[in-house]
Backbone:
């Protein structure tokens, strides 16, 4: 029997791409808008696009907050993608300070409009950028068999800033500054980039997540 | 480890993108030169899958259907493509309302490209960017050389002059909310004689968003020239790929060999 992944449908953008990519990576998908289904999930995927506050508001309106927190306590694998990763943090600063899920200590702040030399650069950060290693070993993580320098696809204007370097699994270089690309803590991982849009590398990352237990 | 940056590449650390473009009419790929004399060239999803396998960085569909039925078949093409292709997908053609943008995004497009409506109603670009975020709004500009050093915007597949000067127009579009400019040289479109370097460079240097150069790709040398001299962030190509003579993988290999920062697929 193939591994199962539950994808949370809380009205935040296109969840079909991630569902198809997970299926392509070998998982059986349950798309759910019902918070009660989370108790039975084997592994959970929280996608998300748009603004931090809006995503939290929708999670709250759909009564997903408590079930997500309870799911994470079970120790089963959890993956947040893009804004789904950002809301794992304590708070965000997009359109004023907004509380997040508080699963990982830290916050989410805007990508500076200038690079490290003070020259203006485009925000949002859109496109293929290479993953850089941090002090974390990628072996056994979602980045297993995905080498540093592998390019993945980003679309975002805000980025997570975890309090602990130990929670940063990978960064990417944008304007000569490191931007958090992936985070990890216990049974949780999050990717700022979109694995479902990152070609073969993205599919490998999803395969790794599906293989995790 | 510092990365090698021997050649001109000012675009932070982002990779240069190779983007196959498909013109779609009533759910089928069509080909023509200078937007006319269209012939059927197969199933868009089939071709998208091939480009995906070859390591394209992004796909671009241009819906050149005018009818409502054609529009419905386009949604179906996007849905089927998003089922099998795991890369960003940009869709344009006949986008007039925020409802059109929403429908394309819901069908599975990552970005929507606006062309004629940006000319007839520029504030639409701002409305769309506000509603969906500038990251998914591309403004497509078809520009033609009308005098030495002067480029003007054309609409209706490059047939209708507007009298609007292209460089200032691109700047205005970015101010209104364009997250990216898809810049097509009407003169070079379908000719395989190389990109319009002067046009591309003028626009790329004027705006702070990525510029996708389109129209004229024929040889690997053209690709090198439009990124090095034209300052393009991404390169769109159609004819050179569609006729099967060149593969995305070969384009990428040449770009890598030349030191361009393309994604190692």
Residues:
């Amino acid at each position: 029997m193939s591994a199962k992944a539950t994808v949370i449908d809380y009205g935040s953008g296109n969840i079909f791409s991630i569902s198809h990519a997970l299926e392509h990576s070998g998982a059986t998908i349950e798309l759910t808008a019902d918070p009660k289904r989370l108790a039975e999930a084997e592994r959970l995927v929280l996608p998300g696009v748009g603004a931090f506050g809006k995503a939290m508001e929708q999670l709250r309106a759909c009564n997903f907050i408590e079930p997500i927190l309870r799911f994470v306590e079970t120790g089963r694998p959890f993956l947040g993608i893009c804004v789904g990763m950002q809301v794992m943090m304590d708070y965000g600063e997009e359109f004023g300070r907004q509380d997040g899920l508080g699963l990982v200590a830290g916050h989410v702040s805007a990508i500076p409009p200038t690079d490290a030399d003070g020259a203006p650069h485009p925000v949002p950060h859109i496109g293929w950028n290479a993953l850089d290693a941090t002090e974390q070993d990628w072996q056994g993580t979602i980045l297993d068999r995905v080498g540093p320098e592998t390019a993945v696809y980003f679309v975002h204007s805000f980025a997570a800033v975890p309090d602990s370097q130990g929670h940063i699994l990978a960064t990417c270089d944008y304007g000569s500054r490191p931007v958090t690309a992936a985070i990890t803590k216990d049974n949780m991982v999050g990717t700022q980039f979109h694995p479902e849009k990152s070609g073969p590398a993205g599919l490998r990352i999803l395969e790794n997540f599906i293989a995790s237990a | 480890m510092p990365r090698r940056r021997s050649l001109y590449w000012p675009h932070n650390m982002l990779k240069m993108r190779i983007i196959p473009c498909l013109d779609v009419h009533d759910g089928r790929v069509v080909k023509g030169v200078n937007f006319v004399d269209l012939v059927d060239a197969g199933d868009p999803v089939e071709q998208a899958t091939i480009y995906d396998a070859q390591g394209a960085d992004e796909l671009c569909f241009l819906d050149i259907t005018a009818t409502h039925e054609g529009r419905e078949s386009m949604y179906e093409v996007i849905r089927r493509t998003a089922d099998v292709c795991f890369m960003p997908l940009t869709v344009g053609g006949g986008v007039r309302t925020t409802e059109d943008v929403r429908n394309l995004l819901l069908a599975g497009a990552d970005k929507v490209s606006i062309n004629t409506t940006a000319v007839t109603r520029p504030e639409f670009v701002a409305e769309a960017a506000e509603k969906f975020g500038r990251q998914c709004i591309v403004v497509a500009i078809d520009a033609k050389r009308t005098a030495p050093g002067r480029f003007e915007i054309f609409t209706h597949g490059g047939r209708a002059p507007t009298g609007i000067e292209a460089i200032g127009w691109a700047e205005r579009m970015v101010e209104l909310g364009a997250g990216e400019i898809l810049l097509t040289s009407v003169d070079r479109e379908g000719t395989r004689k190389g990109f319009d370097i002067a046009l591309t460079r003028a626009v790329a240097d004027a705006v702070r968003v990525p510029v996708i150069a389109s129209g004229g790709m024929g040889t690997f040398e053209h690709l090198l020239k439009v990124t090095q001299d034209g300052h393009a962030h991404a390169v769109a190509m159609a004819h050179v790929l569609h006729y099967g003579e060149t593969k995305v993988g070969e384009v990428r290999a040449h770009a890598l060999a030349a030191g361009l920062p393309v994604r190692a697929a």
